[in-house]
Q: What sequence folds into this?
């Protein structure tokens, strides 16, 4: 039988703390969540002591419960439909979900308020962890249904998964924190098809993926801070596409991140772009500020169009760039003309740009500028490797008190980020 | 930068497969119309998402293809494709009415070029011009101008270096038309939003693809088999001549043939 623990009071206190912190924060344009914690006592179901598999534990859980997983390798693909469930590993590096390159997804969450914590997800054909807001109870998709409200992934390691390491799709009010994603065939961390997203990525790392972070059609208070995006093909891509709903990407802040050496051929091959640190493709109202961007072979930070989407009202300020093929870029990749005045560059430390003297060509505050009709030559991408050829990352820090902390349903998210306190990383 | 290969492969190749009928081929399952089919489950979407990657994993295959270019004229192509190199070679024949197949012509292709061989009189004509040993005419792939090029481009695009995203496949207008048993194997038949129809085997590989040339009412059927590595030999430079340099001669030789 599951061991029944009286976590409700602690959970309520934790929630109260989160709300207070939110209220006291300086604000990043974030919004509050209306989700509430589960009433009544919660149960902790231990795997394998109380249930032989994680799926069995999830299936017998009630809203607000916790599934606590002992060390071991779990060759499972888990579907979660219990609201406000906490799924936690006792040891981040030794609770391992392994898809053996035969299973589709490690953990699929199709309900509100679920938190997945302190474990490793590797070798899945599709995704390590996905919050999927369009999945209906019969297993088909309905993009018109209400998005997931409340999600959290933290202290997670995602290794060599075919598409995304951790993935929030049609999901709102959530956070990825202390995530390390490596060897993903698309991006390590992905947030897409949400408007507003109300999402935060913080204190995370995406290394040796095709793309470190990608946000397609993700808009409305998306904040990426204090994270590392190194040695991918592209560090960060924020773009818009007709292939997903909720067009277009907008209202995104990228601040205080390290974005280095994103020209790594020992990654799965992408769709063409290579050597870009931070790329805005057809997004609007994106702020790229106080990031350190170094050693990207193509362009450090670039604004361009995507499909039929023109970038507009994007600001690139106070970043420190060095040793990139081109430090700052504003140029079309497909269309013949890009209106420069709609995007601006100011107060960056850089040595090269396209067009030259980019802060004079596209200054912030003027609201106007010449059209850009040319583009520099960017070297084509080299061939890649398959995901199972990418070396595993080192061990990562586990969640403090994983075995003793109460359940932590994904409510009251996202956390407030005080952007005023974020500086350029050392 | 975002990729949705299964969809984008054929959407971007709209000149090849836009406005597909979803029919064609003697092994077609139930006739498909725009209202046929059921929404995909996650597992079915995953099968579809992985099928182009399965081709890539297998490296190559043999194929048989047909393109009904006129009511009584059918192109018949049989050959091999290397999915990793996006290249292939085949024997191209023509069937008119109920008559026998024409003599075959060798065709080799790469990502960017098509090489036509066995053009009667080419070798002799080129020898007279001081280029003995030329047996192939090289030209750029042109899917708008040539149904043969459209077919080889379609075959090449039946592979991808990575799996697709099943979630996006699931939420788009892709459907399962049904299942059937052929030669003891259960096949799932899908129709994509762009009306390309795929029969997919139990191992996840494509058995047959059916499409139609855009705006041309030309049904194309490609049947793949014998998955595995295929070595394609591209004609050496000394044995080929660019079409652009012999356009007049080429027209004359084709007319004579």
A:
């Amino acid at each position: 039988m599951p061991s029944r623990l009286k976590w409700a009071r602690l959970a309520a206190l934790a929630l109260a703390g989160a709300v207070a912190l939110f209220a006291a924060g300086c604000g990043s344009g974030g919004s509050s969540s209306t989700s509430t914690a589960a009433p009544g006592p919660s149960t902790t179901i231990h795997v394998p002591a109380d249930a032989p598999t994680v799926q069995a534990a999830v299936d017998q859980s009630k809203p607000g419960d916790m599934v606590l997983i002992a060390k071991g390798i779990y060759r499972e693909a888990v579907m979660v439909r219990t609201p406000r469930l906490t799924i936690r590993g006792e040891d981040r590096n030794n609770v391992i979900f392994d898809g053996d390159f035969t299973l589709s997804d490690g953990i699929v969450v199709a309900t509100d308020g679920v938190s997945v914590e302190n474990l490793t997800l590797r070798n899945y054909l599709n995704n390590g962890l996905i919050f999927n807001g369009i999945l209906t109870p019969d297993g088909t998709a309905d993009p018109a249904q209400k998005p997931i409200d409340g999600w959290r992934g933290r202290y997670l390691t995602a290794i060599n998964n075919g598409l995304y390491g951790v993935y929030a799709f049609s999901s709102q009010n959530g956070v990825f924190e202390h995530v390390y994603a490596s060897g993903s065939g698309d991006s390590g961390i992905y947030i897409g098809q949400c408007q507003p997203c109300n999402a935060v990525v913080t204190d995370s790392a995406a290394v040796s993926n095709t793309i470190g972070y990608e946000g397609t059609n993700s808009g409305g208070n998306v904040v990426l801070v204090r994270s590392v995006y190194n040695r991918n093909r592209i560090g960060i891509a924020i773009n818009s596409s007709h292939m997903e709903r909720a067009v277009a990407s907008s209202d995104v802040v990228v601040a205080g991140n390290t974005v280095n050496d994103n020209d790594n051929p020992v990654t799965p091959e992408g769709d063409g772009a290579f050597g870009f640190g931070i790329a805005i493709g057809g997004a609007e109202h994106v702020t790229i500020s106080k990031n350190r961007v170094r050693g990207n072979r193509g362009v450090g930070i670039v604004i361009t169009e995507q499909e039929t989407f023109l970038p507009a009202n994007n600001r690139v300020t106070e970043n420190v760039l060095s040793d990139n093929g081109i430090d700052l870029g504003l140029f079309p990749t497909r269309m013949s003309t890009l209106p420069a005045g709609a995007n601006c560059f100011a107060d960056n430390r850089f040595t090269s740009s396209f067009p030259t003297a980019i802060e004079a060509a596209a200054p912030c505050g003027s609201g106007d500028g010449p059209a850009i009709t040319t583009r520099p030559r960017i070297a084509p991408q080299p061939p890649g490797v398959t995901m199972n050829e990418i070396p595993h990352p080192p061990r990562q820090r586990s969640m403090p008190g994983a075995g003793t902390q109460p359940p932590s349903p994904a409510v009251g998210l996202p956390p407030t980020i005080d952007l005023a306190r974020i500086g350029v990383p050392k | 930068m975002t990729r949705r290969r299964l969809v984008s492969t054929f959407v971007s190749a709209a000149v090849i497969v836009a406005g597909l009928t979803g029919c064609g081929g003697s092994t077609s399952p139930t006739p498909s119309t725009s209202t046929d089919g059921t929404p995909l489950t996650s597992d079915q979407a995953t099968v579809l998402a992985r099928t182009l990657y399965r081709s890539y994993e297998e490296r190559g295959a043999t194929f048989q293809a047909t393109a009904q270019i006129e009511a009584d004229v059918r192109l018949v192509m049989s050959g091999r494709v290397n999915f990793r190199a996006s290249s292939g070679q085949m024997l191209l024949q023509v069937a008119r009415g109920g008559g026998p197949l024409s003599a075959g012509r060798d065709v080799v292709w790469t990502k960017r070029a098509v090489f036509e061989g066995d053009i009667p009189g080419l070798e002799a004509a080129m020898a007279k011009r001081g280029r003995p040993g030329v047996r192939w005419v090289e030209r750029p792939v042109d899917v708008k101008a040539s149904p043969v090029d459209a077919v080889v481009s379609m075959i090449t695009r039946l592979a991808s270096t990575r799996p697709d995203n099943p979630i996006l496949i699931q939420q788009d207008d892709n459907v399962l038309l049904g299942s059937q048993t052929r030669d003891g194997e259960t096949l799932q038949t899908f129709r994509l939003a762009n009306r390309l129809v795929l029969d997919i085997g139990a191992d996840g590989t494509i058995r047959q693809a059916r499409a139609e040339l855009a705006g041309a009412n030309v049904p194309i059927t490609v049947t793949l088999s014998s998955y595995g590595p295929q070595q394609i030999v591209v004609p050496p430079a000394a044995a080929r001549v660019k079409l652009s340099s012999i356009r007049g001669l080429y027209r004359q030789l084709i007319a004579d043939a």
Notes: The first strand of chain B starts at residue 38 and ends at 39.
